Amino acid sequence: MSGGLPQGKVLVAGVGNIFLGDDGFGVEVVRRLSALAMPEHVELVDTGVRGVHLAYQLLEGYRSVVLVDATARGCEPGTVYLIEARLPEPEEQPTALVDGHRMTPDAVLAVLGTLTAGLGGSGPERVLVVGCEPLTLDEGVGLSPVVEAAVDEAVAVVLGLVEEAGRTAAAMGTR
Known about the structure:
By secondary structure, the chain is of the alpha/beta class. The protein has one domain: HybD-like (Rossmann fold, 3-Layer(aba) Sandwich). The chain has helices at residues 25-34, 51-57, 105-119, 145-172, and strands at 10-15, 42-48, 64-70, 80-85, 126-132. The chain has a five-stranded mixed sheet with strand order 2-1-3-5-4, with helices on both faces. The longest helix is centred in the last third of the chain and has 28 residues, at 145-172. It is globular.
């Protein structure tokens, strides 16, 4: 996998609503990751539906962020994606109100862009999204079998990104 994370503090955030079927994908991936030994420069968080809180947390000096979420892109359900995300430019900032309980990674980054512009700060150098094509976002707890089967693949992708960030940090003598 090319183009991994820069060295430094890494945040891996599971995003989604566990009460909407496959939307709980990101939360489940982070739950599984939390059972593993992670390097000290990596922080795992289950942000669930707290997207505005996540946007503020991204101001806390993370060099890299991996957002894990159900991500509908039109492929077969269960397809795992690795997406390079970016903060919107000031002229791209949304003017609509944000629904704090249905915040996609794009919405979180839009709020972060507004915060960095308004507060004069900066967000992470790099943001990646590990997403999975959902089968269903209907009300109900639990992932569909095809999305449940993709959780292990997403865990492996995140672990690869974290390992790469750690190798880069060791080579540069920083964490």
